[in-house]
Amino acid sequence: MRSEKDIMDLLETFFYQSDDLLVFLMNGSKINVNIPDDKFKDFDVAFFTNNSAKYKGNSEFIKKSFGEILLMTEPFNPFNLELFKDESDGKRYSYLIQFVDGNRIDMSFYELDYLEEYLKADSLTKLIYDKTNRIKKEMIPSDADYLLRYPSSEVIKECIKEFWWQFLNTLKSIARNNYLLAQKFLNYTREQLIQMLTWQVALDNGFDKNYGKEFTTITNFLSPKTLNILQQTFNTTDFESMISSLKIMKTLEVKVEKILADRMSFDYTDYSYIPKSYLISKDEEELASYF
Hints:
Elements: H1 4-17, E1 21-27, E2 43-49, H2 60-66, E3 69-73, E4 92-99, E5 104-111, H3 115-121, E6 125-130, H4 153-175, H5 179-205, H6 224-232, H7 239-264, H8 274-281, H9 285-288
Parallel strand pairs: 2-5
Antiparallel strand pairs: 1-2, 1-6, 3-4, 4-5
Keywords: Nucleotidyltransferase, Transferase
GO molecular function: nucleotidyltransferase activity
Organism: Isobaculum melis
């Protein structure tokens, strides 16, 4: 596996040998000093040019400049636009490249007139080179945009309602014997529970911290008992285990709701009766008996 210096040398050479490339930026975990370095960090690269069309659907330069490709995707090609939203309104083109040697580069080419908007969008951005000195102010990469904020009571209440809404969607899919859809909605339900748990963790360990992508680092702060309970909700290989997972999530959700309501002082509405009430209204008494 080539070293970080090897890859940076290749990126810098490519940038300087391409006259149309004017600004070279990086973001992501590679430049986040608050995340321990490891071999899985990728190179998230943004080049700015007056001719982004030059790089659209024309990937021959990648192997020539950076090495043998194991797998590559182009999220914003015409065939993928139904899967990936382009927030730049067509002003970028990207290649996500996994190389044979283990390195990965996520490389995007932006129109130069998108530079100002890009700089506002992500605080974790590092200036590597600027050929024409377009960026006047000093750039200090920071993960400020990724820090957890103290939520308003309205935000918490919406999260609670969303948990129970997706809970009902999961029950409906189970009642219809639709396994794949039930899994999808069950995951949505768990996402809301994890958000609630993250706020609880932050009450004890501080807000304005980065708790990781999708709040993954809260597992470092949960008690062993709570972590074990949460892990049990991922055992969903059949409908019976899905129902068990929902029961576990229901109990944990209610517990966390009450903790947050008490410590964050908002009016608490207990929705825990809703799953059973809903199922009874649909004449699903047997399923309702579990809740």
